[in-house]
Known about the structure:
Layout: E1 28-30, E2 35-37, E3 44-46, E4 57-58, E5 74-79, E6 85-89, E7 105-108, E8 118-119, H1 126-138, H2 145-150, E9 157-192, E10 195-225, H3 232-238, E11 247-248, H4 251-254, E12 258-260, H5 266-288, E13 293-322, E14 325-332, E15 338-340, H6 346-368
Parallel strand pairs: 8-13, 9-12
Antiparallel strand pairs: 1-2, 2-3, 4-13, 5-6, 5-7, 6-12, 8-11, 9-10, 9-13, 13-14, 14-15
The protein binds zinc ion (ZN) (2 copies).
Amino acid sequence: MTSFDDQQQPVVEHTENIKCTSCGGNTEYNPESKGLKCPFCGHEMPIEATYNHTVELDFESAGNSRNHLWQEEKRVFQCQNCGAESVLDANVVADFCSFCGSSHISVTEKDAGIQPGLLIPFQISQDQALDKFRVWIKGHFFAPTQLKKTYRLHKISGAYLPYWTYDSHTQSHYVVRVGNYYYETVTRTVYEDGKPKQVTEQVQKIRWHQESGNYREFFDDVLIKASSTVEPKLLQKVQPFQLTSLTDYKLEYMSGFLAERYQTSLQQGFTEAQDVMKNGITRGIERSVAGDIVQVVNLSTDYTNITYKHILLPIWISSFHFNQKVYQFIVNGQTGKVSGNYPLSIMKIVFVSISVLIVLLMVYLFLES
Ligand SMILES: [Zn+2]
Ligand SMILES: [Zn+2]
């Protein structure tokens, strides 16, 4: 649990679902029009996309402030199977886990945590995502035919994945080992047809010394994934997201979608961000110190003016079971890039292997005759 527990409950502003101005039904976010759409009468309502440039939040004071917690009423569902925690509008009930397909999912007492400041709204609709799933599964010959026929039955959910971004000024003191090349002329004796002969050549040597100094660098928006429910390899394949499309988080964008609650805490995320920054600082020092070889041997860094943002990035996810194993298929909700893993049909593999063997055998017999 977070460090917010021992404090009093936040004042939750009760927000109604956004009602259709035409018929009063509950509207849903529609990726195609980037507005709200009423599923009952089809009425469309635009959302004004905004970008607030002062969205950076102070990292040091984050632990003792309740101000940044999710303002609307949300419910957190936890999956007993994979541990994923889904944040949904309070009036929505989850009946299966989008990340593993399990129906062992129950509402928890946990609060939804820090409210996202920015998100990338979905641009790919559910129908488009399903089409991509169909094309993808058909393109994989070794996937079982049964799966290809039933793909429409597999649920595909729109989920916002949690990320942190950190900004920080850094000031580092470093010690480096610097090597500079120099050349020595060496004369040695070689034997040609048994006769000794003198040759001179240039040999490269390295002269080493140590030096120390100070180095400053500002890091902007170091992105850290705060979820581990989607297979990292799959997620890697559908990246990148175009972060220039980030817009202010609005309740409207969540309508009909879920957000995964972050599993990496704000603190842990910063520790990971420091590793990224340390790599950047090391490369920066290696570039700025003159020398043929520069190796950082000691580095101590102060991080100041640290700010963070909690952001959400959109994916469509379908988790399907096949012979008691879970497979994930994901679509980047912004760009439409897909990736997934799928079961192999043993029947097809056996069939193809036997066919190949028969062909090889025939070629062999032909060449022998
Ligand atoms: Zn309506
Ligand atoms: Zn699950």
